[in-house]
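Most newcomers find our protein records easier to grasp once they have seen one. Read left to right, the backbone structure tokens trace the chain's path through space. Once this layout is familiar, the rest of the handout is easier to follow. The record below serves as our worked example for the rest of this section:


***
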Amino acid sequence: MAGAALGAGPGVLVLQLLWGLALLLCLALSRAAGRARFAVVLVTLGAAVLSAALLLFPREDERPATAAADEIVDTFFIGRFILLAVMSLVLLGCLFLLLLYHLMEPVYAKPLHSS
């Protein structure tokens, strides 16, 4: 693939750059005072419209080139599956600990003053 960087094509990189700049601009505008703060909505809508235009832009020739019968083999499937399983177990453990130590924290009654 010509022009690929980090395994992603140029279109993905352009979309990442677009949304990164939109996020930075939204963060800068959220600190503004007055009506400038509401420009965040326009920035988000503009980024969405540009993304839609870039996604609808034709990427290749309409006639696909004849592809060779190359078989794509995912050699990292087992490693990714194990990583997903471990991360799922860690997430469940963290949620269990959150349940125990934060949500089920005992609330002790204060003694009433009798006079």
Notes: The two ends are 84 Å apart (CA to CA). Residues 29 and 39 are 7 Å apart (CA to CA). The mean pLDDT is 83. Residues 77-103 form the longest helix (27 residues).
